[in-house]
Amino acid sequence: MPTLTIPITGMTCANCSNAIERGLKRMKGVDSASVNLASERATVSFDGDQTNQSAILQKIDAIGYGVAIAEYELPISGISASEQAVDLQNSLVSLLGVVSAQYLAETSKLRIAYLPTQTSLRTLRQHILANGYAVPTSQATPLDAERTARQNEIAHQRHLLITGVLFTLPLFILSMSNDFGLLPDWGQSVGFAWAMGALATPVQFYVGWQYYIGAFKSLRNRSANMDVLVALGSSAAYFYSLIVLIARTLGNHAWGHHVYFETAAAIITLILVGKFLEARAKGHTSDAIRALLGLQAKTARVVRDGGEEEVALDDLLVGDVVLVRPGEKIPTDGIVTAGQSSVDESMLTGEPLAVEKRAGTLVTGGTVNKHGALQFEATRVGSDTALAQIIRMVEQAQASKAPIQALADQISNIFVPIVILTALLTFLAWLTLGQTDFTTALIRMVAVLVIACPCALGLATPTAMMVGSGLGAAHGILFRNAAALQTAGTVQRVVLDKTGTLTTGKTRLVSIQPTAEFSRPEVLTFTAAAERASEHPLAEAFLHAAQAEQLDLPSPENFLALEGRGIQAEVAGKQVLVGNLHLMAEQQVPISDAMQAVLAEWQALAQTVVACAVDGQLAGLLGIADSLKAGSRQAVQDLQAQGVQVYMLTGDNQHTAHAIAKQVGIPLSQVRAEVLPAQKAQTISALQSEGEKSWSVAMVGDGINDAPALAQANVGMALGTGTDVAIETADVTLMSGDLQGIVRAIRLSKRTLTVIRQNLFWAFIYNVVLIPVAALGYLHPMLAAGAMAFSSIFVVTNSLRLRNSKI
Q1: Is 13 helix (H, G, I), strand (E, B) or coil?
Q2: What is d(CA 465, CA 141) in angstroms, rounded to the nearest whole number?
Q3: Rounded to an integer, what distance in angstroms lies between the CA atom of residue 714 and that of residue 514?
Q4: Sequence-ordered list of residues with C-beta below 8 angstroms from that of 63, at least 6 positions apart, any chain
Q5: Residue 771 belongs to what H/E stretch?
Q6: What is the CA angle 94-6-791, rounded to 5?
């Protein structure tokens, strides 16, 4: 199903995001919909046969909210007939993310409106070029249009805030001066009251008009949000004051003589102060995305037609030969063809040490070339690069919802109706039981309406998740979604694959012991020749050793891979078996006591021992060594220090597995050896349900055969140095091969969860304590409005503290 990511405007609290989510989910053909208040984005999966992008955008508009749509006019050449223009327009509109396309014949420009979160100018330009037309490049980034919409909204709120302050401040000063008897007798006149009403009216109906609109849209959708509370509270104070003023003008003093215009204006202005500061603070939650986008080079220097030329990044093609000078950013992904240098990859992997690059090594776009000059061939460009994929992954994580948010969403759905009911009961109670006048009861009802803050509840989880996922990306830790970020902090057991995870995965042949009937070169020749058709990591070690000794390897025939045991093939007319002891026993190949002693000795040295049999007779044993990664032992110790049980899972024999476990400090009782690829997921399942309790288990691997286990685990972690299959299956991707990434991921998750709990505690306790305080008459509406504004600001700024965490 196609999935749309839509930037939403106009949301003020969790009720807004919930209303959009409910409305979208009710649409026929919509499979799933999630709306994130902090990132202000909706993610919608739908059946293209039953609904479409246009209907979804119309639904959001009907619910009462806007969409940040980017619009650009691109000069275009090659259109000579109106039919061509119509065909191109229709072709563009059929693309997911394109809202409209119109060719302007008088200016030879194409006006395109699109969702900047779904597609990009590069994609649109490539589509136009593929249709045979020419259009220049643009340096605009996908976030520009959305960011512009957000900045325009902040600018509009700033204008309203300044207007509100200009009217409210003198109104407040005059009112307080009058209440304290600091003004002459004219302060008690009807004319003075009309002057106060005149100052309050622009605030009520210009500055505060957005709250009336928001309240109307919310009620129209059979829900109630923060706008309803603000509109009700400020309107009660304003219109009561207006009634008193009109009555006094007509000589009727039955309604009293005191007006509360300053209260109505202060409620709107103070809440607007909070919303403005909150919007600015929320903008910082996307700093991680902007930082990643800032890593992109603007241009690339390529070799074309025998000469060098500088081209825009959008013009870069797969296969281009790219030149990079010292100190320059590497513009895209590729493989080095000439030169030698060190490259700073810290912005992607979090690792501070520069990585040496030479012919045959891979480079990644966005990293920085340090010293030497490099020439490389571009292998991935545009949205296919590693950096683009990282940005997409972070965006997806920030747009998703964490399970911990469900409770806050449920409370937000009923929060406003409960507050309105509480306010009415407060009014009636003071009027009937409290022996107070109508005015006092009304003011206390207004205080209840404006003290309540559903916004803090709605922002508590997503703001922390956005900052946490961004901080992870800065340290080379990519969370697939918010659920993964939450779950990582609850991990009790970490299961580490051996080869490529605990060890470097760069195996080498270190020992050969032939039997009396075969020579050393013969054993290596039969083994390497049979392994030529194998994709197993150990095959590379045999082939490298054979090449080093310049052995002539015949081609294998009738090759067959025997899962978890080895291979068999026909080499030079002889039947060759290469594999573990299980394969030898299965094929009834005898192993002498002397060879058993050699095998045990090598396994004690943490070597993986492979047997080679020719025509049913043992030809020899081969020992493969795979060195530990530098930080493996420290990472295991750090995990254990956090109270996490560390297990090792491997298909290797038990003796070798135990030798590795001893080196890194994993208890032998927590080693699972000789596990077939198909059994890895079962082993994870067993560890999850061991004993009388359920365990939260993380699996860390890097290979294709780890994918089922990664999927089975509560949290699957893949090393960025591993296979694409493992990375696509995992919940968390560690961009570097350093196992400290596991420690950092768990630590980051725990800190993020701590901030979320702090936010939720504040949001709940604030409302639980201050609503009764307001109902009992201990809080003036102006102070209540200020407290409400502060509540949301506290949640957002508390989440932003995560940015400075050392993980």
Answers
A1: coil
A2: 24
A3: 46
A4: 19, 20, 23, 217, 221
A5: helix 740-775
A6: 175
Residues found in the chain: 807
Q: What is d(CA 569, CA 557) in angstroms, rounded to the nearest whole number? A: 6
DSSP strand E in 438-531: where?
477-479, 493-497, 508-514
Phi, psi of 670 (to 5 degrees): -110, 25
Strand duo 30-36 + 41-46: pairing:
antiparallel
Q: Is the pLDDT of residue 557 over 60?
A: yes
Nearest to 38 by CA among 395, 398, 409: 398
Q: Is the pLDDT of residue 723 over 70?
A: no
As to burial, measured by CB atoms within 10 angstroms (0-12 exposed, 13-18 middle, 19+ buried), residue 110 is buried
Cα gap 210→693, rounded to integer Å: 52
* pLDDT over 70 (residue 139): no
Q: Residue 589 in contact with residue 618, Cβ under 8 Å?
A: yes
Inter-residue contact 571 to 554 (CB < 8 Å): yes
**Tokens 């506290």 — which residue?**
794
Greater model confidence, 686 or 730:
686
Nearest to 639 by CA among 738, 492, 499: 492
Q: How far apart are CA 16 and CA 219, in angstroms?
A: 11
Which H helix or E strand runs over 244? helix 226-249
What's this model's pTM, rounded to 2 decimal places?
A: 0.79
> Could you tell me which residues are beta bridge partners of residue 509?
624
Rounded CA-CA distance 468/753 in Å is 9
Of 458, 538, 561, give the one whose Cα is nearest residue 767: 458
Q: Roughly how many angstroms between the first and final C-alpha of the chain, as a whole number?
A: 37
Averaged pLDDT, 422-436: 89
Q: Known catalytic residues?
A: 497
The C-alpha angle 560, 561, 565, rounded to 5 degrees, equals: 130
Among candidate residues 68, 263, 302, the one with its CA nearest the CA of residue 175: 263
Measured in whole angstroms, the distance separating CA 674 from the mean position of its chain's CA atoms is: 36
Q: Are strands 608-614 and 574-579 parallel, antiparallel or unpaired?
A: antiparallel
Question: Is there a contact between 408 and 458 (Cβ–Cβ < 8 Å)?
Answer: yes
What is the phi/psi pair of residue 422, to 5°?
A: -60, -40
Q: Using CA atoms, how far apart are residues 579 and 568, in angstroms rounded to an integer?
A: 8
